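Hi,

Apologies if this is the wrong queue. I'm a grad student, and the batch job for LINE-1 type transposase domain-containing 1 from Labeo rohita produced an output file that my downstream script rejects. I'm not sure whether the problem is my script or the file. Here is the sequence I used:
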Amino acid sequence: MPPKTIKPAQHLKPSGQMEEEGKVLASKKLAEPQSEDNAATNDDILRAVQSLREDCSKQFTDTMDAINGIKSDLLSQAQRMGAAEERISQAEEDVIALQHKVNKLEETTEFLRNKVQDLEDRGRRSNLRLLGLPEKMEGSNMCAFIENFLPTILRDEFGSPPVTERAHRVGQVNPNRPSTPRAIVIKFLNYQDREKALRAARKMKELRYEGQRISLFPDLSAETRQRQRQFDGVKAQLRGMGIRYGMLYPAHLIVTHAGQQHVFKTVAEADDFVRSVRTTA
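Support response: The file is valid. Your script probably expects a header line. Output copied below for reference.
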């Protein structure tokens, strides 16, 4: 086998020399004229940069226009909000003024309602209501019947027969309760006759005519009667306890207990009194 040929060893250049040679080669390359491909590439880059600048400029302009539009809208909204706040403030002031007027009108309305109710009740002061008299018992002349009827049931309380200005039944016959007679309103010519009849009825406590139980009451307005009916529950309890009571105009409950009189203007006060009496009993 022939012996291998040994290559002669290569001599390595120093690092400083290699750097100098690299710089020389680079300078030579820069000194060489650029090719047409490199020039075309630079033009493309310039055009792309120019196009990018134009796009950016356009987008910036569009953005500024949008911002200016938003600013304009915000300014318009701020103006409208200011105007709306002024109108709301004015409306609140108007509402307060109107509320004061409404309160004043409500007070005036309540005063006038009470005044009308009082006038209506005063117009009925000479009237009495007769309950329980069967239908058609009065015949064809109601006034003549009443003038003979009252002295009979009140046992000659009147020195002379009372004079009635008019008398008539109220409302229509209830088809669901045909046996229930309608009330009779009696208007006396003399107020004193009305008072005599009412005092005699209260003194006798129970009135009967031909086996029928009848009652005499003051003739009051519907509003006053409604206010007095609120005490019906309390009056029922007082009757059960054997305590005397009565009604004062317009709607006050008067109770006589243990030799003392108590006047109650509200149902709550009367209920408290009944509870206290039951507790101490």
